[in-house]
User: Fold this.
Amino acid sequence: MNEEEFQEFRSSLGRPLAGQSLTNDPDNPAPFEQAPEFTELDSASLYLWTTITEPEVYAPAMEALSDGTPIMDLVQLVLKTEFQKGMFNPDLMLLLIEPLAYMFLALAERLDIDPVFYRGQEEDDEAEERIMGVTFEEEKLEEMKKAAQSGKVPPGIITSEMKASLSDLPELEPAPIQNQRPSLMAAPQEGI
Assistant:
């Protein structure tokens, strides 16, 4: 691949050009270019709890966890989405990784879901996960796994207000798989 082909490929990825943010209209900034909505860990944690327990987020998130989606993937998705809305700055976003992971862990525990923490967890000998540019070392991941196995979320992460709202959450039934074809290993059926 020559330089011209590389540049054409690179421009087709839909990424912004270097310095493009400097040409944005200063009178109409993007939400993440303004002052953040939250600047304290406690209020941002409570906001995230409220967000992930809303029915339109809670049900799909719990279904994803039961299907084997790693908790850290959901954490990254939620934090990135809320950052882009201008809810918190990058520093606070990084501080929210661990509390949000424990929140998802508590919700999964409530439904008896055995969660996966990160992609490749089963076959990974070197327990290290990168989320949003931060490396979670083996000790921290082991601590989270032990908390999951013991059914105990560290004190202070899930507040009494959050615990009280757990009783308001719906019990979820596994959703039927849409447009599922019959298994090739299934017994033949007449009329199909």
Notes: The chain is about 45% helix and 5% strand. The CA atoms of residues 129 and 136 lie 5 Å apart. The first strand starts at residue 129 and ends at 131. Residues 37-162 form one domain.
